[in-house]
Structure formats: structure tokens, C-alpha cells
Amino acid sequence: MDTKMAFSFIVSFLILFLCFVFHKRTKGSKPLNLPPGPPKLPLIGNLHQLVGLLPHRAFRDLAKIYGPIMHVQLGKVSAVIVSSPRLAKEILKTHDIAFADRPKTFGSELVLYKNTDIALAPYGDYWRQMKKVSSLELLGAKKVRSFGPIREQVLDGFMEFLRLSSGKPINIHKTVTELINNVVCMASFGKNNKQQDALLESLEEFAQVNSGFYLADLFPDFKFLYMVSGLRSKLMKLHKTLDKIFDDILEEHECRRNAGEVQQEDLLEVLLKIKEEGTLEFPITNNNIKAIFVDVFAGGTDTSSLTIEWAMTELMRNPSIMEKAQAEVREAFKGKKKIMESDIQSLSYLQSIIKETLRLHPPIPLLLPHVCREQCQIDGYDIPVKMKVIINALACSTDPEYWNDAEIFKPERFENTSVDFMGTNYHFIPFGSGRRMCPGITFGMITVEFFLAQMLYYFNWKLPNGLNSEDIDMAEVDGALAAKKVHLHLIPTCYVPEL
Ligand code: HEM
Asked: Where this protein primarily resides, as one coarse class (predicted)?
């Protein structure tokens, strides 16, 4: 560390400490019966218990000691962590309205145009209106089905790429993410966009710096931290880049519209029409549309691609499950020259594999944070207004009280049961539940299923460099998304179907 950096670090720390002491003296403490939790250190609270660990795994371990409802102090942010299906139901169903808010961060206000997207919009009339638009007009079953030809076109290209790569290792993460980004881009704007890679890169960076675990967000009262930590300039730069990309996309779309080239109703066209009709109670602007596309790209790309990567990883680690899955698709598609999206509905074993993947590797293991709007009691403890509430979906989907052999990959557990991810089985909530539940389930799941079905039908897979299945690194990256830390590389070899 150079002298200048060391100096600014020491000064920040001192100011932080003085602010902390001052705050403690001026604020009277209320006699609330908060949930129990691990002992807290002055200033940093429980942050030291998370250093170098993955929050969803560290919280799951702490819950084994302190119980399924825990109070933690993350710097200056007070949070309640819920880790059991019974209490997740209390928050997401019984007291759904009381916990339907989201936290605001400096980053979300800036990059999401004052939180006017859907995912991080505060609970209220604007959010309700846009959630309805997303569920009915953008991501409803009919609209998602209308993008079938796009998925088929992208997958045809992928299968051709795999045939050409036969015998050579490919990076599953990189390839699948790029292709799903193509699907999302074509569904959103009607065509691929030359800036789509830059868009994805910026959104990945935003997801990282807006995870809620950045120093400045953990001490939100101390605004200077945004400056000294460099987060402010990073976010300003990100906002500028994204804004320019979206402006270019809007301009190009306008030109294509004027030239009569917009044929199929892509998502941008749907939103522009809604804007122009002017029938919404809260009229939307181009900035609101840009904020919604941040959700569509951030929510629609990595979640699906990492599910495919984890599913392939588990299949490589479990050869008998891979064999059974390939037998299912090869029987179902026997004699077909081309696989259409309508053909995948009968693949019940593949669907169980996807559910089991989402159970052990929920892409957003802590869901998106909820915020309490009305003081209420959960399990006898007080949860005050503004308290951040984090639901540990991973802890719920691996709770040994609900799952036998909870840590073992066993798709058969989903056979002959009605347990699904639609938000009513609180021991399995990879998409959340209640008012703030994910509206993109159909879009995400159809993509994951169609990709996996074709990858398993047309190809056999093996690990490169003589690796064994036990050698696969199962570590996750640190961030809001539980992506695989070391990308999965696999060698495809063509399977010639019997006609
Ligand atoms: C495998 C795929 C996906 C997974 C696992 C997933 C998961 C989630 C989760 C856990 C939440 C938060 C729920 C909560 O806080 O209680 C969420 C919210 C959301 N997701 Fe997804 N998602 C996926 C795909 C998509 C897609 C494809 C889109 C859009 C194209 C999307 C858009 C959204 C939006 C807009 C929200 C915010 C809803 C709200 O706050 O009201 N997601 N998603």
C-alpha cells in the first residue's frame, strides 16, 4: 500500500470511528425484543464472522448455532436472517405486505434511475403497476412462447458450434452465457446488438458492487465512504456506460421502427407502445424503460446460464444420472430430425434434474433483500420498520428436517411429488415467493430446459485432461449470484441419433 492510500485509509477509519461514537451517544436505544444472534463487535458488528466466507453458507452455519431467525449487524446495517421454511412462510406469505419493500443503495438509485426498475423498486403503486406489466405483457407464458423461434435459432447455432468443436474442450460457462445473452437481446430488441457483450459485462460489475456487502453500503450514513472507497466514481462510470448503451439501442430501434423493420413485438416495442398509449396511471419515461432492461438482462442471463453450468457439473459427477437423462431425451426425440420447443414438455426426469440443481445451487441463494414496512412480530421477536430481512433460500432447500440426504444430488426425490418452485413450498424457493417473487420463471426455465435437452440429446460429454469427476471444483464465487468459481470445461462428442 503506498503512503497516500495508507493515509486515506487511516483517516477514513478514524472518521468512521468518531461518527460511530457520536451516533451511539445521540441515539437512545429502543427496548425491542430482537431475535438472538452472534455477539457483535463495536463498529463492525458481525462483519468479522463473514470475512472470506460466502454469506449464504456462513449464515447457514451461524443459524445452526443461533436459530432460524437471527439478528446480525453488518456494519451499520441491521439485518434479520431467516433460515427455515416455516419462518420463510411467515415472512413471504403471512406477513407478505409488511416485508414487500427493498433496500435502496447509492448504486441502485444511480444505475436504476432512482430505483424505477421492478426488482429494486420500493413497494408502492409504481412497483405494482410495473410488476403487472412484467407478468402480463413482458414475461407472461404467451409472450415467452412467442420467442420460441429465437431460442430455436440460437440453439441451432450452438449445436453447430458443438459439432465443430467435437473432441475439443469448451468453456461451458462462457459459451452458454453468450448464447443466453443472445436470446435475451433478440427477445428484448428484436436483434443482436453489437454492444450486448459490453452491456452484460457492465451489468455483471453492477451486480458485484451492488451486492449490499460493499463497505460504503454497510455504513450508509457515512457518505464520504462512497468517495474514499472509489465506489462513487466506479458507479458513476458504470451508469454512464450503461446509459450510453441504452440510448444507442433506443435510437437504433427508433430508426428501425421508422423504416418499418420492427416486425415481431420485442420487449422494447411492447414498452414503447405502453409508454405512447399513455394509459398507465404512472406514465413511464425512457429512463424507466432503461431501468427495466437492467432487470431483464441482469435477471435473465446469468441466472439461467449458471443453472445450466451447475446441472452439467452435477451430471458429470453422477454418471448414472447422466445416463438416465440421456436415455430419456434420446427415447423422447427418437426419429425426430429437428427438436422443437414443444417436444420438451414430456421430459419429466430432466425437469427433476433441473429442480434438484436449483435446490442445491439456487442462483440467488439469499433471494433479493426484503425490507420491513410495518413493525411486526415473527416467532415472538420484534422486527422494526426498515429492518433488512434476508431469506436464506439455500438453508431452506437443504434443511435436513425437510429433505433426506439433503446435500446429495438425487433428482429422483422430485419424482411423484407435487413439490415445485412456484412459491408455495417454502422448503424450495429458488425464485422467492409472494409479492416480490420472480416474474421470469417461465422465460428462465424454458431456456434452461431447451438448452440442456439438446446438449444431452446430440452429444456425449467428458472432462478434459484426464480429469475425474471427483476432481471437479465445486467452489462458488463471492457475490449475490452463486456462480461456479472455476468454469466447467467439457469435451463434446457427437451422438448420432437413430432415425
Ligand atoms: C433461473 C432463472 C431465474 C432465477 C433462479 C431467478 C430468481 C429470482 C429471485 C430469487 C428473485 C427475488 C425474489 C425475492 O426477493 O423474494 C427474483 C426476482 C426477480 N426476477 Fe428472477 N430469476 C430467474 C430468471 C429471471 C428472468 C429470466 C427474468 C426476466 C427476464 C427475471 C426477472 C426478475 C425480476 C424483475 C425480479 C424482481 C421481482 C420483484 O421484486 O417484484 N428473473 N428472481
From this structure: membrane
